[in-house]
Design goal:
Arc Repressor Mutant; single chain; 112 residues; mainly alpha
Length: 112
């Protein structure tokens, strides 16, 4: 059985809650990595719906403003290591963490 048929047979399901989604992603890391590698080999990265939406949003809003944040050296080192484990640049990783924290804080503050 080829990789293509294995990856084509298993699609990401719809999830009822975050814990169910987190479990799916954890249990299917190899599947996702294989699909990513296949898309890279076929030259299809950056051509999907998510990439298209990101490009549209960036073109509407223009470039993100550049800011400076001072971080202790040890925290920056930790961010670099964790980002590398995910295959990300540390700036992208920190931006992702900030986005997640802001989303979480907004949800928390809207409940109370």
């Amino acid at each position: 059985m080829s990789k293509r048929s294995v990856t084509a047979d298993k699609k990401k399901p719809h999830f009822k809650h975050d814990a169910q989604q987190a479990a799916w992603w954890e249990n299917n890391q190899d599947l996702v990595a294989d699909q990513f590698a296949q898309a890279k080999a076929e030259g299809k990265l950056g051509q999907g719906a998510v990439a298209r939406l990101a490009q549209e949003r960036a073109s509407r809003s223009g470039p993100s403003p550049t800011i400076t944040i001072r971080l202790p050296k040890d925290e920056l080192a930790r961010a670099r290591v964790l980002a590398a484990k995910r295959g990300l640049r540390y700036q992208t990783y920190l931006k992702m963490l900030l986005h997640q924290a802001l989303e979480s804080e907004e949800r928390r503050s809207s409940r109370g």
